[in-house]
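COURSE: Structural Biology Practicum
ASSIGNMENT: Worksheet 4, Part C
STUDENT ID: 0417
INSTRUCTIONS: Below are two proteins. For each, the amino acid sequence is given first, followed by its structure token string. Answer the questions at the end about the second protein only.

PROTEIN I
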Amino acid sequence: MTQGNLSNSPLLPDRCAAVQEMITSVAAILQIARLLLNAGRQVDIQGLDRVVGILCARALDLPPDQGRLVRPSLAILLIELDTLSVAMNAS
């Protein structure tokens, strides 16, 4: 299958949507972790690195035009991850 045929595949919107759903899920996990941390609870995010790794791999597997669609959400997710990391290191 050539690159031109791949970019016209009906599966691409589904793949892009699946990546966006993963971003939303990880963002929800981070939000819950921040809420727990702010409430003085201990937070265990063991395994999150694996989930984020899978998310990044799936985003990289998207064709460039589809990847550009999820880039802003990934950038926001990175900020949320960094913010959580700072908060966890401060507690």
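PROTEIN II
(use this one for the questions)
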Amino acid sequence: MARVELDQAAPDFVLADHQGRQVSLSDYSGKKHVLLVFNRTFA
């Protein structure tokens, strides 16, 4: 995956939310702020 530079739009991607529904970055197009949280579990 190519690196995103400053002042460049992030590429669209799709992830599953906590209920298993597909959510894409483009779903939030036009919103002022988008917060992404990537939780990791450590065993």
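ANSWER KEY EXCERPT:
Q1: Residues 25 and 36 are 10 Å apart (CA to CA).
Q2: The mean pLDDT is 84.
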